[in-house]
Amino acid sequence: MKMVRGLAVKTEQEYGANPLTVRETGHYKKEYIESFVDKWDSLIDWERRAKSEGEFFIETLRQHGAKKVLDVATGTGFHSVMLSKAGFEVTSVDGSQEMLSKAFENARSHGQMLRTIHSDWRWLNKHVHDLYDAVICLGNSFTHLHHDNDRRKSLAEFYATLRHDGMLILDQRNYDALLDHQIKPTHNFYYCGQDVRAYPEHIDSSLARFCYEFTDGAQFHLNMFPLRKSYVTRLMSEVGFQNVTTYGDFQETFRDAEPDFYIHVAEKSYVEKEDETS
Ligand SMILES: C[S@@+](CC[C@H](N)C(=O)[O-])C[C@H]1O[C@@H](n2cnc3c(N)ncnc32)[C@H](O)[C@@H]1O
Asked: Of the residues 94, 118, 220, which should be mutated to test ligand 1's pocket, given the most ligand atoms within 8 Å of the CB?
């Protein structure tokens, strides 16, 4: 703990005596401490990430006619900034004040002024009082929710803040491959930084603990919930989303074990099936 402007600031992540027992949804706030947030951009490397993603999100949003976007997992602001630069009207939400401050700074250095809202997804609509064409929850963020009821509640909050024909884009690491021991994650898409090693330290059916090791010796962890793809798409449908389409590493066709990341694109607009009306 150090003091900054009279406030106590955490300098180390807190996991207690047995880190593997930490499986709480609210714990992300203790994980994204200032020193980790400061290093986050060398983990994701904006330039390389922009190259690897290409125009995928911009094109997908435009295809759906989305203009007004709520980035609910802003982090250090990568997508908020990219989308603002591309002409979208973006509002940036995060439950971590450290992340939002960093995002604001990053956006300023890219000539953008972010509209930020500090909120946890579970009570998003307490703080967000507008409707959006699209909600994006990217960078394997949904994995921070450790319990089924938190995931349902958050998806319901995302749904509620969308216009009647809005859309959700939510991505996740391919945990199926990790849980089934099929592949090791690569560095190709999300965590593109060259001076960091990110690897799973522990995996079981309700915990994926990742270690992030930087060349200067700094080491951080994240305790996440290993989401199975079929579970996430089912949950999205159960909450009311329609037409859930899944991409693997930005491709429409893929073999399940191959992608590092899945990107789910879902719609809110409800189309009645003919056989259900007859
Ligand atoms: C892995 S980071 C991803 C950030 C960014 N989207 C990216 O791709 O670089 C996850 C972000 O989600 C936020 N987050 C996690 N759980 C949250 C919750 N329950 N409510 C609001 N924000 C949350 C964290 O604070 C963090 O900024």
From this structure: 94
* C-alpha 276: how far from chain center: 35
> Once rounded to an integer, what is the mean pLDDT over residues 127-135?
97
Domain spanning 25-174+228-268: which superfamily? Answer: Vaccinia Virus protein VP39 (3.40.50.150)
**Which pLDDT value is given to residue 190?**
54
Residues contacting 130, CB < 8 A, separation 6+: 91, 161
For residue 184, give the DSSP letter: -
pLDDT digits (tens, 9 = 90+) for 42-64: 777 888 889 989 999 999 999 99
Cα Rg of the chain (Å, integer): 18
Q: Is the CB of 78 under 6 A from ligand 1?
A: yes
Domain spans in the chain, listed from the N-terminal domain onward: 25-174+228-268
- Predicted confidence at residue 189, as pLDDT, reads 47
Structure-block tokens of residue 49: 């990430």
